[in-house]
């Protein structure tokens, strides 16, 4: 009999209204939000659910742009220091409903930020601890972002020497994500990323799509953020995962808490090996992957990685009902 893997999306999947239907209909999901907001020190319900936010000190510029209105558009949901705990909380709230429905997994992994969801699902972190860590992670990444950083998705229909071309390009540019066959992401200094993208197109890439991000994530330029995160994690309790957990950094299963601690510090400035992570879980017996959180990014990646396994997702109560009927 095959095994079930939970997969959790990363930053970029967030949207206003994520997990709202579960919050309204599932007590376990509401409890996740309540715990997370207490840990964060601000309302994650407000950030996740509200189209507008009350004008405050941190929204003063938006209020001025809106003509001094008392409420301003919710831009926090796309601001890294708020995006990360908000998306984490929404995904964990959906996970709570999935588990309440009796659906359990044998293994878990998450893309970048989603790795913290996977570790929480595996029992390595409590919801409260995961939110506290991710709040600091978002701040470290936001503050460490150098000016002129960029990320670009490289799409190709045939293999191209992406690492070699990045290494031969003047300036700082490297592979940030191995998402699936035909899609990698490069990250680094904007000019270097642009030069590498042009070379990759000449080498046979079909498209180079600049990403709307606030900096060169998962590149060596985020080393400082990784060092701060590593220091934060020094005294953090991390339990051995109760599920098979696969690391972004290695694309392999990790069970030792000290190794997990080290890898989490490296993760923000290292490539995300998502394709390799999925392939490892398939080798470990996974034949059903359930993406838990907003969007279907990972489900779409799965279809390109291996069409021989089931790729399902849960974003709404209707999705959960379909999932229960399928399993």
Count of helical segments? Answer: 14
Proportion in β-strands: 15-25%
User: What is the overall shape?
Assistant: globular
How would you sum up the major sheet?
5 strands, parallel
Helix content: 40-55%
Alpha carbon gap, first and last residue: 12 Å
Sequence stretches where pLDDT stays below 50 over 5 or more residues: none
Query: Total strand count, please?
Result: 11
Strand order within the widest beta sheet: 9-4-1-10-11
What would you report as the Rg, rounded to the nearest angstrom? 19 Å
Mean pLDDT value: 94
- The SSE string, one letter per element, is EHHHEHEHEHHEHEEHEHEHHEHEH
**Structural class assignment:** alpha/beta
Topology:
Blueprint: E1 3-8, H1 20-25, H2 27-40, H3 44-49, E2 52-54, H4 60-65, E3 71-73, H5 80-100, E4 107-110, H6 114-121, H7 127-144, E5 149-155, H8 162-167, E6 173-180, E7 183-189, H9 190-202, E8 207-210, H10 223-233, E9 244-245, H11 257-267, H12 274-283, E10 286-292, H13 297-305, E11 310-314, H14 317-326
Parallel strand pairs: 1-4, 1-10, 4-9, 10-11
Antiparallel strand pairs: 2-3, 5-7, 5-8, 6-7
Helix pairs in contact: 2-5, 2-7, 5-6, 5-7, 7-10, 10-11
Structural features, described:
The protein is an alpha/beta fold. The protein has 14 helices and 11 strands. The protein has a 5-stranded parallel β-sheet, with helices on both faces. A 4-stranded antiparallel β-sheet has the order 6-7-5-8. Strand 6 (173-180) and strand 7 (183-189) form a beta hairpin. Helix 2 runs antiparallel to helix 5 and helix 10 (223-233) packs antiparallel against helix 11. The longest helix is centred in the N-terminal third of the chain and has 21 residues, at 80-100. The protein is globular and about 55 Å long. The two termini are 12 Å apart.
